[in-house]
Design a protein that fits this description.
With 75 residues, this protein is an all-alpha fold. It has helices at residues 6-12, 19-38, 46-74. It contains three helices and no strands. Helix 2 packs antiparallel against helix 3.
């Protein structure tokens, strides 16, 4: 589900320490990223560019957190 105020959600969202919730959050960020990337480049103004950058950064951060959780669970 896309958040109408995705930028605010993305900035303040912290990754949960539960792998299932983390994957669900990642799916939402991926969906939002796909939506933003489907917007023609000529229509991506400052706020959309910023939102896309923030969402991409959050995806990488959350993936890293998920990897850490899974490595910790494997020990």
């Amino acid at each position: 589900m896309l958040h109408p105020d995705g930028l605010t959600f993305a900035i303040f969202a912290t990754p949960p320490d539960d792998a299932k919730k983390l994957r669900a959050g990642l799916a939402e960020f991926e969906q939002e990223r796909e939506f933003l990337e489907s917007t023609p480049a000529s229509k991506r103004d400052g706020p959309l560019k910023t939102q896309l950058r923030v969402v991409r950064d959050k995806i990488e951060s959350w993936k890293s957190h998920l990897d850490d959780l899974e490595k910790g669970a494997a020990k």
